[in-house]
Amino acid sequence: MQTKETFWGRLCPKLPRIYIRTMTAVLLCAALALPAMATNASGNDMWTVAQNIIVDVYNHIAGISTVLAGLMSAVAVIGVKLTGNQHKADQAWDWLKRIWVAWAIINGIGAFIAYITPQFSGFNTLTP
After folding, report:
1. What is the pLDDT of residues 68-122, one digit of tens each?
2. With 70 as the cut, is the pLDDT of residue 59 above it?
3. What pLDDT digit, counting tens, does each position of 2-14 carry?
4. C-alpha torsion 32→38→40→44, nearest 10
5. What is the 3-state secondary structure (H, E, C) of the chain?
6. Residue 1 has pLDDT above 50, yes or no
7. Whole-prediction pTM value?
8. Computed from CA positions of residues 17, 22, 27, 28, in that sequence, does the dihedral angle turn out positive or negative?
9. What angle do CA 111, 71, 75 make, to 5 degrees?
10. Tens digits of per-residue pLDDT, 19-39?
11. So what's the pLDDT on residue 125?
12. How many CB atoms lie within 10 A of CB 68?
């Protein structure tokens, strides 16, 4: 009569071999990995390039939001002037307020970051 071995009964004799192979693979990967130098062709490091990208993207977002806020404000004001219904006029004024608040928040974030960033200059380095 054959007895069925349990999962751990079959695996335990193989564990040292599995562990050694896994650790060998991990150590080989660590030993053969080349250090990556995070600079681009102009010599800027990764953080300078990332900051330039963020500033450029934010400037585009702020520009687009300004154009859209102006356009949507014009549409809301025209909607107020052309409607004969007070309820629709109130809705148009509500939308106009939302547009202005959203525009102020989007541009306020940029102004806040532009003001705060110089305050923290020098804190991003480690000096003994």
Report:
1. 999 989 988 888 888 888 888 888 889 899 999 999 998 888 888 878 877 777 6
2. yes
3. 556 677 677 777 7
4. -150
5. CCCCCCHHHHHHHHHHHHHHHHHHHHHHHHHHCCCCCCECCCCCEHHHHHHHHHHHHHHHHHHHHHHHHHHHHHHHHHHHHHCCCHHHHHHHHHHHHHHHHHHHHHHHHHHHHHHHHHHHCCCCCCCC
6. no
7. 0.53
8. positive
9. 130
10. 889 999 999 988 887 766 566
11. 62
12. 13
Specify the residue for token string 């977002």. Answer: 61
Q: How far is CA 96 from CA 19, 37, 99, 108, in A?
A: 66, 50, 5, 18
CA distance 32 to 26: 10
Q: What are phi and psi of 99, to 5 degrees?
A: -60, -45
Rounded CA gap, 3 and 104, in Å? Answer: 76
Closest Cα to residue 63, out of 28, 107, 3, 30? Answer: 107
Give the Cα separation of 111 and 62 in Å (integer).
11
Q: Which of 62, 38, 60, 58 is nearest to 49 (CA)?
A: 38
